[in-house]
Amino acid sequence: MKTQKARINFSKVKDHELAHVAQNIVNKMTINAHFSQPTPTLLSIQTTISTYSDALLKAKDGSKQDTAYKNACRLNLENSLSSLGSYVNLTAEADLVKLESSGFPLSKIPEPIGILEAPTITVTYGKNPGEIHIECSVIHKASGYIILYSPVPGPADNNEWYNKQWSSSKGTLTQLKSETKYVIKAAAMSPEANKMGIYNFSDPVEKMVP
Question: Does the structure show a pLDDT above 60 at 1?
Fold first, then answer.
């Protein structure tokens, strides 16, 4: 089971927001009984925040050198916050109350996707003999598509069909037996469906292979 953690990557935080985010963390962790020995120290991070804030202000209408210095100060602050976040995660041991008290933004726990609805499929001839092109309707949140195919009649047990897994909603089956009618069906994949081996398959489509 996945648990929440303090997010320790701040590279996507905007320049003008980074100091505010960092200051909130320092404020929340000051005299915080859950984190008695922060590493690096809050005093050192406070100094880094001030240095970055001054450099950001100077770079606003400054030279290229001022911008380069601001970027260096930003990287220093990011690295300091990352180290502090690692300390928070190690100390909190996934305790959500402790994590929330740190002021760090927390990672999100992905919501389960479940068993997805069945797609509809369109089956057409491929460019070459022995080929069939298949296009599935796009199913939101699908991690891919599983294609089952067999000469007619298809087996009663899905495990006895030939199968392909595609990351895309469309693709081409090749090296099929020409002048043979095949039956094809497809399902959308998800982590839960893959784990349980349960899928909602489309209505089967029969097609003579050229």
Answer: no
